[in-house]
Amino acid sequence: MEGLTRRDITTYWRRGRVYLFGNRRRSSCRL
């Protein structure tokens, strides 16, 4: 946690959020 800065956490969170949304879209398309 000490090594990660606030900016890194925000970037990582955004990536995770986009990744999750991408999976949801793929799942919806398959269904």
TrEMBL record:
Listed name of the protein: Uncharacterized protein
Lineage of source species: Eukaryota, Viridiplantae, Streptophyta, Embryophyta, Tracheophyta
